[in-house]
Write a structure and sequence with these properties.
This protein has about 110 residues and is mainly beta. The chain has one domain: Sandwich (Jelly Rolls). The protein contains no helices and ten strands.
């Protein structure tokens, strides 16, 4: 059995107030834990595989294609491969934590 705590995952990126930690990285899927400082944004980008975001804590502004919506704790947001997406923590005080799952691993 392997147990990985969210904050113990391998740090893969720290940029623009967003810290990304890889929790799971196998052929079938990849799971990444994102921590957004207040005001931080994950810039618009695309992925080569389907992805979903699970809001663990806080409130996110999520952009998928031309749509922009708020999402709160316990929401799941789906984004199909090749569609531009971005996430943002517009709070000036609260942390935003998001679990990202990519299937299959890119």
């Amino acid at each position: 059995m392997k147990i990985t705590k969210a904050y113990d995952g391998e740090v893969v990126v720290t940029k623009n107030g967003v810290k990304a930690q890889r929790l799971y990285n196998e052929t079938e899927a990849q799971v990444i834990h994102l921590t957004f400082q207040p005001g931080a944004r994950l810039d618009t980008h695309t992925t080569a595989v389907n992805v979903f975001f699970y809001i663990l804590e806080g409130e996110a502004w999520v952009e998928i294609g031309e749509e922009r919506e708020p999402a709160v704790k316990d929401c799941i947001i789906e984004s199909a491969k090749g569609i531009p997406h971005a996430l943002e923590n517009q709070s000036d005080a609260d942390i935003l934590r998001v679990m990202v799952v990519k299937v299959p691993r890119p």
